[in-house]
Design brief:
Calcium-transporting ATPase, cytoplasmic transduction domain A; 37 strands; HAD-like_sf; golgi apparatus; 9-stranded mixed β-sheet; single chain; 36 helices; cell membrane; 5 domains; alpha+beta; P_typ_ATPase_c
Length: 1128
């Protein structure tokens, strides 16, 4: 079924049916929302009440043209111990993180805060300790340096760019009033309290109180693109008193006002303060402020007073840390890494215990293994434990995290490059604004969508209205030369009624629409009046003023205290006595006007719920208007009620005094103003109602239907009336006739709503939208996605696991807070069903294979330990261990993570059920992890024991055994490389040239490097590093009982039972610092004499025993002794 939650807006709502113009408060962070949700956890689940907003403190004082004032002791703050500095920031900004001295230590500190990097650093330290080290230090150092180096270079490039930007910004020029005249100064030298002069196209250097402007009525137009991404112009307005008295340089130099306002904060939508000047107090709000980051437009010159500078400005305060979102796979991967680490500890401990027992039983009793160290079995076991921690560390390879980041970056680029998500009409491509969440797009269970501008186009058209109980529907506008030719309305009877001027209600209706608004008008110079351009805060308001214009009531201009309109070719100017602002608590706005004939009248427009509560008992047409409203709502039209009230002069003067007191209140100003507004907004007389159409975007019904087939539950959260929302639900295929509809307000919200196929929450406010998302995340542990287009959707977008912004008609705040952004709702199906699904499948396949290939690689050491006395000896050659994850096996699996497809994009969209595995998390979980583990164990068994069995009893044509340690290690490593590269080939669903090249290239690189490091040339160049693979081949030449040995390379070890492998792989056979025990006589035989190869004395021969080659020769002697004994 579907669920309708009709929740009245308790704290926030909208003008009329919607809350779309609710300004976004950046102070309300996700953490605060989380806290509010925690507090509600004790109550039964339901739509929560929004948290109470904290009031800003009015503790900031700014004195104009008085720099010493801001350095008084009362404005000092303690920085360190007894060092103090002014609490007022200078205007220089610093966004860079490092300098020459701090880059290396700080960057390394930041990188080592990551557990994986710290883990590998600890391994590196262990490898430096001689008694523990079983692998050369470079096997860990090289991968670690590569990872740290790449990250450090990226951070350095980013920080150098920040340095350049800071320098450029801090050295910008601006005119500042110093010593009675304007002087050019750098931005870095501006201070709080300075008066500055700005000119057209100047960037605003700080948060400035607008004092005066060259435009009439102290208007100043600004572009806020750097602040909120919006390119349309906004207007700011100075106080009338400062504009009239502060135009000249001399007047500005004598200006000595004291500003008291809120402390610096990150609220882009709010400012509250008071100006004390010449014993008068004047209220200040955001309309009087020019914020840093904006640009002056269409204004030749303006003057302002610096209130907040540098780090205190609102744009800099908004540069704080955002909540880092993690994917489910991220969390799972971290838990699995912890699991592997626990396994590593357990295996290393088991093998260390094995070594303890082995040494007690065998090692300590074998005279040929004596190393004169005097260490007991337990201590040797302890050292062996740390040795195995090093040897087996590749179960948690450092390249895992780097590879995951590369794959995510690539997947983000594919989203950006997708032409099928490009909106040509507005030249808007899709944009992945984060690189960490791509695979989560393939696991979405709930979508929370705004309605206006997200499902609809947010392009408003005035369609119907009801005046004095009579409804009018959709006219030829040729009679009106001021008409907007795009405007369509079909009912000629209303036109006739308005043109006759006999219907007073119709006259008042359109007069109200032309007067009660905050729209600004732009006149195109030299063009006819029909080229008026209206700039409205919301599309609704623009549509209503345009409707009045077409019916002959043309809004022409406004000043700070007048509004001029043309009423059927007769121009009239009305004095504006008060503007009672819209906010989302009030859901209405009012204006009090003094007519040319002296009458005072209040006009009000707002949502039917708030207007009907305030109507006079004598108001007519309530029932008929309500019936019309219901009909309009059923046609999915957005409705507003219009009303008026006549006010006597005495009543207004008494109210006006209260209004002025509330305007300059130092605390709870908003609440004080609301109380004053309530006093005057009562006993209203209803005129009628408007109905505005907002059409659905293209492809919305098909997208919703397709997402529903993928078992994604879609909730629409809107400020509209229940009837409007329900009908929108039907028109966009969210609801269907075969659904059972449930309405309710006091139900068990979460449990019942989550059982429904679709949910529509009506009359919800921005905070409630975010809290609904929090509830589902908290109680259902589901992966959520929020999609919206307006500032009122920002909290919802930030709260969900994934936030999607629609770049539509309402600016860019939603996009700037989102993780993904595009221009049309219909692109959501491609984002989820194609990119999300592919990303999830690729990441899961990558992780499964990555764990497999590292288990298969590392566990060979485990099997080898049973034949090497558990002595933490490695089964591979050192360089192979170093390069395995970097060169030999990384590229094929990386390309699968980037390019693999099980089916193409068309089939992914055609069969939405293919999305289900991601929601259920079936492709990567602990079950898959242990399958990868056992797969790796099986492969490691095969690639160890088959070569072991093959070499065990082997004889070459020359009668020698080719089964030395080198040959065994190379064969095992080669088997591994073939196995993992052929396995990834079998797992690849989508073959491209680069996949084929990567597989063959990895094998070719392996053999190329292997031949190089086993060549004579590399030994000649680095004899100490490559003693393992000397250039010569030592062969024994015996004649009779005497014996001669020719040194021509590595010893060819004789074949004998498993004890041979045990001896060959003991660490002391490879360590040059171990010598023959001094108190033991060297074994003698008729064919061996120390130093015989060199032709020197026995003493010289004893010195050569210290070399690695002689150490191996000693081992060979022991082997031959045992071989002779065995044959005897």
């Amino acid at each position: 079924g579907a669920k309708m939650s009709r929740q009245r807006a308790d704290s926030q709502g909208s003008l009329g049916p919607d809350d779309e113009v609710m300004p976004y408060s950046d102070d309300e962070t996700d953490d605060e929302l989380a806290v509010s949700s925690e507090g509600e956890a004790e109550e039964p689940p339901g739509v929560p009440h929004p948290p109470v907003e904290a009031k800003p403190k009015m503790g900031w004082k700014v004195k104009a043209n008085d720099r010493p004032y801001h350095h008084l002791p009362e404005f000092q703050k303690k920085v360190f111990l007894c060092i103090k500095k002014s609490r007022y920031s200078g205007n220089a900004i610093k966004t860079y993180k490092y300098n020459v001295l701090t880059f290396l230590p700080l960057n390394l500190y930041e990188q080592f805060k990551r557990a994986a990097n710290l883990y590998f650093l600890a391994l590196l330290i262990l490898q430096i300790i001689p008694d523990i080290s079983t692998l050369p230090w470079y096997t860990t150092l090289i991968p670690l340096v590569v990872v740290l180096g790449i990250t450090a270079i990226k951070d350095l490039v980013d920080d150098l760019a920040r340095h350049r930007m800071d320098k450029e910004i801090n050295n910008r020029k601006c005119e500042v009033l110093l010593d009675g005249r304007f002087q050019e100064s750098k931005w870095r030298n501006i201070e709080v309290g300075d008066v500055v002069r700005l000119k057209k196209n100047d960037f605003i250097p700080a948060d400035i109180l607008l004092l005066s402007s060259s435009n009439p009525n102290s208007l100043c137009y600004v572009e806020t693109a750097e602040l909120d991404g919006e390119t349309n112009l906004k207007f700011k307005m100075g106080l009338r008193v400062t504009d009239e008295r502060l135009q000249e340089e001399r007047q500005l130099a004598e200006f000595d006002a004291l500003i008291e306002c809120e402390e610096p904060n990150n609220r882009l939508d709010k400012f509250m303060g008071t100006m004390l000047w010449q014993r008068e107090r004047y209220p200040l709000d955001l309309d009087n402020m020019l914020l840093r980051g904006c640009k002056v437009r269409n204004t030749e010159e303006c003057h302002g007073l610096v209130i907040f500078a540098g780090a205190d400005t609102k744009i800099m305060r908004n540069g704080g840390k955002t909540r880092f979102k993690r994917t489910k796979i991220d969390e799972l991967m971290n838990y699995m890494v912890y699991t592997i680490f626990v396994l590593l500890i357990l295996v290393a401990a088991g093998l260390a215990i094995g070594h303890t027992f082995w040494y007690e039983e065998i090692g300590s009793k074998a005279w040929y293994l004596y190393d004169a160290k005097g260490q007991d079995a337990s201590y040797r076991g302890f050292l062996s434990f740390w040795g195995y921690i090093i040897v087996l560390n590749t179960m948690v390879p450092i390249s895992l995290y780097v590879s995951v980041e590369v794959i995510r970056l690539g997947q983000s680029k594919f989203i950006n490059w997708d032409l099928q998500m490009y909106f040509a009409e507005k030249d808007t491509p899709a944009k992945a604004r984060t690189t960490t969440l791509n695979e989560q797009l393939g696991q979405i269970e709930y979508i929370f969508s705004d309605k206006t501008g997200t499902l609809t186009q947010n392009i408003m058209a005035f369609k119907k209205c009801t005046i004095a109980g009579r409804s009018y529907g959709p006219v030829d506008w040729s009679w009106n030369r001021h008409a907007d030719r795009k405007f369509q309305f079909m009912d000629h009877s209303l036109v006739a009624c308005v043109r006759s001027r006999k219907d007073k209600d119709a006259t008042e209706f359109f007069k109200l629409l032309s007067l009660c608004h905050t729209v600004m008008v732009e006149h195109k110079d030299g063009k006819p009046c029909s080229d008026l351009v209206y700039q409205a805060a919301s599309p609704d308001e623009g549509a209503l003023v345009t409707a009045a214009r077409n019916f002959g009531y043309v809004f022409l201009s406004r000043t700070q205290d007048t509004i001029t309109i043309k009423e059927m070719d007769q121009e009239s100017t009305y004095e504006m006595l008060a503007l009672l602002d819209f906010n989302s608590d009030r859901k209405r706005m009012s204006i009090i006007l003094k007519f040319p004939d002296g009458r005072i009248r209040l006009y009000c427009k707002g949502a039917d719920t708030v207007i009907y509560e305030r109507l006079s008992p004598n108001s007519r047409h309530k029932e008929t208007t309500q019936d019309a409203l219901d009909i309009f709502a059923n046609e999915t039209l957005r409705t507003l009620c219009l009303c008026y009230k006549d006010i006597s002069t005495d009543e207004f003067e008494a109210w006006s005094r209260k209004h002025k007191d509330a305007q300059v209140a130092m605390s709870d100003r908003d609440a004080a103003l609301d109380r004053v507004y309530e006093e005057i907004e009562n006993n209203l007389m209803l005129i009628g109602a408007t109905a505005i159409e907002d059409k659905l975007q293209d492809g919305v019904p098909e997208t919703i239907a397709k997402l529903a087939k993928a078992d994604i539950k879609i909730w629409v959260l809107t400020g509209d009336k229940k009837e409007t929302a329900e009908n929108i639900g039907y028109s966009c295929s969210l609801l269907s006739d075969d659904m059972q509809i449930h309405y309710g307000e006091d139900i068990d919200f979460v449990n019942m709503a989550c059982e429904c196929e679709a949910v529509i929450c009506c009359r919800v406010t921005p905070k409630q939208k975010a809290n609904v998302v929090s509830l589902v995340k908290k109680y259902k542990k589901a992966v959520t996605l929020s999609i919206g287009d307006g500032a009122n959707d920002v909290n919802m977008i930030k709260t969900a696991d994934i936030g999607v912004g629609i770049s539509g008609q309402e600016g860019m705040q939603a996009v700037m807070s989102s993780d993904y952004a595009f221009a049309q709702f219909c692109y959501l199906q491609r984002l989820l069903l194609v990119h999300g699904r592919w990303s999830y499948i690729r990441m899961c396949k990558f992780l499964r294979f990555f764990f497999f290939k590292n288990f298969a690689f590392t566990l060979v050491h485990f099997w080898y330990s049973f034949f090497s006395g558990y002595s933490s000896q490695v089964a591979y050659e050192d360089w192979f261990i170093t390069l395995y994850n970097l060169c030999y096996s990384s590229l094929p699996v990386l390309l699968v993570g980037l390019l693999d497809q099980d089916v193409n994009d068309k089939l992914s969209l055609k069969f939405p059920k293919l999305y289900l595995p991601g929601q259920q998390g079936t492709l990567f979980n602990y079950r898959n992890f242990f399958i990868s583990l056992f797969h790796g164990i099986f492969v490691s068994l095969i690639i160890f024991f088959i070569p072991y069995g093959a070499f065990l009893q082997t004889m070459g044509q020359d009668g020698e055994a080719p089964s030395d340690y080198q040959s065994f290690a190379v064969v095992t490593a080669s088997s591994l490389i073939f196995t993992v590269n052929l396995q990834i080939s079998l797992d690849t669903s989508y073959w491209t040239f680069v996949n084929c090249f990567a597989v063959l290239g990895s094998i070719a690189i392996y053999f190329g490097i292997m031949f190089d490091i086993h060549s004579a040339g590399i030994h000649v160049l680095f004899p100490s590093a490559f003693t393992f693979t000397g250039p010569e081949k030592q062969e024994e030449v015996r004649d009779g009982g005497g014996g001669e040995e020719k040194a021509v390379g590595l010893p060819a070890w004789p074949a004998f039972p498993p004890l041979r492998l045990c001896l060959l792989s003991l660490p002391w056979l490879r360590r040059p610092h171990l010598v023959w025990p001094k108190h033991s006589a060297a074994p003698t035989s008729p064919w061996w004499t120390p130093g015989q190869h060199q032709g020197g004395s026995p003493e010289r021969g004893r010195k050569h025993l210290k070399s690695r080659r002689w150490t191996k020769t000693v081992a060979r002697v022991v082997v031959n002794i045992l071989g002779s004994a065995q044959s005897t």
